[in-house]
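Backbone-to-sequence.
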């Protein structure tokens, strides 16, 4: 097993991650390093890892360094140690299948071997924090999980009483992973492949949009003049330095920021509809 890693400046992390996920859609490991660097890593047998020359050309100056190393024989155990459970708001416990359930929290089991980890990444954790604070209405509970990844947000919403839940993702591995994880957790969640760059996202009272900044901007452009806006949007995947700009973009189409959470370099926004439509 080989570990292929690249390091970028934190301000370039968004573009590097977007490019790397195109080459390694099954997911990447992210580690914050000193001196304002972020390391992304993928694992695989020799000869099956992404070809990086084209990746270097794609991101240009964003690339800092690339390295590869052979993974020790105890990789399986180390991989499990990397994916630790996450307790959110004292109420929701997101865990891999090999960790025991929390005695006093709502249980959510996610297999990190299928897609984008168990939900411990800052962007997912921030979305979950805001979701836990969102009151579940007596009606109009439909949810769209836009860019569902491994299904963490949509499954959490279903467990909290929202529904029906629709998960959308361009990556077929994510579609499969979300459906399987929903089944493991015993919740109903429709999941289908979807291309935000060429399709109009369906409307719903609550939209969970854990997307990178460029995709959030694309979706915001779709909403200009839309006949119906979500009542609430929980948006993340954006860097803290992007938050003001994206908040202003969404505000201009009728979705005003009502709350913001920040963890490290990442931010999440709660946006509420300011007009009926």
């Amino acid at each position: 097993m080989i570990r292929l890693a690249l390091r970028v400046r934190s301000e370039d992390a968004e573009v590097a991650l977007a490019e790397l996920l195109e080459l390694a859609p099954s997911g990447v490991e992210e580690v914050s390093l000193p001196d304002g660097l972020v390391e992304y890593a993928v694992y695989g047998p020799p000869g099956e890892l992404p070809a990086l020359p084209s990746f270097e050309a794609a991101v240009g100056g964003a690339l800092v360094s690339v390295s590869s190393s052979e993974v020790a024989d105890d990789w399986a155990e180390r991989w499990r140690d990397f994916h630790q459970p996450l307790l959110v708001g004292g109420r929701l416990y997101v865990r891999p299948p090999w960790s025991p359930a929390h005695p006093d929290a709502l249980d959510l089991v996610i297999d990190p071997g299928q897609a984008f980890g168990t939900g411990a990444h800052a962007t997912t954790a921030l979305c979950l924090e805001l979701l836990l604070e969102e009151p579940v209405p007596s009606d109009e509970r439909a949810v769209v999980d836009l860019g569902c990844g491994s299904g963490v947000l949509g499954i959490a919403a279903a467990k909290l009483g929202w529904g029906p839940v629709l998960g959308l993702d361009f990556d077929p591995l994510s579609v499969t992973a979300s459906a399987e994880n929903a089944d493991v957790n015993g919740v109903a969640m429709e999941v289908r492949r979807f291309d935000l760059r060429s399709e109009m996202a369906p409307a719903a009272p609550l939209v969970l949009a854990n997307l990178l900044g460029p995709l959030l901007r694309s979706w915001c452009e779709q909403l200009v003049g839309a006949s119906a806006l979500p009542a609430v949007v929980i948006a993340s995947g954006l860097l803290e330095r992007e938050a003001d700009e994206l908040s202003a973009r969404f505000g201009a189409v009728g979705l005003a920021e009502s709350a913001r959470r920040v963890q490290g370099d990442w931010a999440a926004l709660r946006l509420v509809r300011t007009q009926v439509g």
